[in-house]
Amino acid sequence: MQESAAGTTDAQAEVAEKSRADAHPDQAFGSDPLAVRESDHYAEEYNEGFVDKWDELIDWKGRYESEGSFFVDLLRKHGVESVLDAATGTGFHSVRLLEAGFDTTSVDGSAEMLAKAFENGKEYGDYVLKVVHADWRWLSKDVQGKYDAIVCLGNSFTHLFDENDRRKALAEFYAVLKHDGILIIDQRNYDSILDNGFSSKHTYYYCGDEVTAEPEYVDDGLARFRYEFADGSLYHLNMFPLRKNYVRRLLREVGFQKIDTYGDFQESYANEEPDFFIHVASKEYIEGALTANYSSAVNTAREYYNSEDADNFYYNIWGGTDIHVGLYQSEDEEIAPASRRTVEQMAKRLGLTEGQKVLDLGAGYGGAARYLAETYGAKVTCLNLSEVENERNRQFNKDAGLSELIDVIDGDFENLPFNDNEFDVIWSQDAILHSGDRVRVVEEAVRVLKPEGQMVFTDPMAADDCDTSSLQPILDRLHLDSLGSPGFYKKELTRLGLKSVEFEDHTDQLARHYGRVLAELEKREDELAATISKEYREHMKTGLKNWVAGGKSGNLAWGIFHVKA
């Protein structure tokens, strides 16, 4: 018998739920509360008793102090004058915005919440709120005019269970904004709850000292939260556990060009740390928005690979058109044939046929793409963040007469500019490590993969049982917080529904490859002095030695993943 997050059995939970439903009939969830996964149910959940208790949960004074002037400063920075508070609740943010001088309209789908917000407006500053009872999915029908900003706060967007409802709501937000408007939307850190279990600093959002707000049950399609108050009263909300990057993707697909995401009001954070994420999405047309949306880790990698030193090093030393780890048959084998052997071995697993569409993530100079196009007649799209490498790639394709089969696109793998279910094969070699959000990369790859598609990739990784502190020299050089691991990729790919995840372990090749690159650099250093700076060469030698040491110590892993949808 399963246990819920609160430690009760299913039978106990059912009895308890019946008694709660009797105490609060208007909030009844029926005989199976976990089956209630409908966007329209929120209106029944916010019954009069719960609404009367809501301000105890919020604690206006505590939230005012913890939040500070974050939203006010953000709106002023964007030159905002008019604001639509799309999830007014009991009016906390509407009152704050009115205090700050913004022309504010207050919207909510719960009539009970709006009534309480109107009362609170009078009580906290004698404000007369302009309230509108509206459903987000048909917002433009009930709200007149356009706004400089829309704020949708308090984890409210998670009340929408259906993806079509979420897309429709965001499209309505987009339509009601002025041409250069912004949308500010927040959510709980459901990634951390789903992956690591629930914890909360109880600081930023729900500040009431005598109220508990904790999940009673969580799966990928439901987060059922339990709210218990000092007088013993108990309420629940059923919400959809939105992952951070899923929301960012929806925002982009609706049309917002630039999205900044804060964690507990901070720009810098580790993904598991914040209680809440705050997305700031800009509607304004921004030239170069693609690179503006690159994460800091991706931008670091882009700047590095675009440098003249890096281009000269990888092209001349690492193997020319294949810049990834090789499969060596002897200690002193040349880098280029060993690197090509990796491509051949990966390709053999796929059973490619002419005309199949392949997406190469982090394609570098496009060596694998040309091999797949020439050998199998595949149509390959190369996605790569270095414009310098991409120009070389295009020229090589032209010289080889393969331009008709290979497209080269500037971009990064955290935000794939492709439709769902577009590619037969996702291919990547030693590139995903450069992302600071590998979960996002895997999710994006699976999104654009066809239902019967395949994914094949390699990546320098941490061993599953490694001493992470020993990897710090490598991480510092890459400006990363962590590396992936075989267990990480297996877990994420399985979570996303891939039916077969195989890992062909070639960890021994990692130290051998970096050792060969180091030896080649040292052998040809005088020759390279004219094109690669001494500082770069010295840093590279240090970095290569760290990779060799990590590989020999057993703290690193490498091999070929083959995944089937």
Automatic annotation (TrEMBL):
> CDD domains in the record, alphabetically?
AdoMet_MTases
BP-aspect Gene Ontology terms: glycine betaine biosynthetic process from glycine; methylation
Compositional bias (Polar residues) at which positions?
1-11
Q: In which pathway does it act?
A: Amine and polyamine biosynthesis; betaine biosynthesis via glycine pathway; betaine from glycine: step 3/3
Where the record annotates domain Methyltransferase, the positions are: 83-181
Q: Which residues form a coiled coil?
A: none
Task: Give GO terms: molecular function aspect only.
Answer: dimethylglycine N-methyltransferase activity; glycine N-methyltransferase activity
Keywords, A to Z? Methyltransferase, S-adenosyl-L-methionine, Transferase
Q: What Pfam families does the record point to?
A: Methyltransf_11, Methyltransf_25
Checking InterPro entries in the record gives: Erg6_SMT_methyltransf, Gly/Sar_N_MeTrfase, Methyltransf_11, Methyltransf_25, SAM-dependent_MTases_sf
The Swiss-Prot or TrEMBL record describes its family as follows: Belongs to the methyltransferase superfamily.
Descriptive protein name:
Sarcosine/dimethylglycine N-methyltransferase
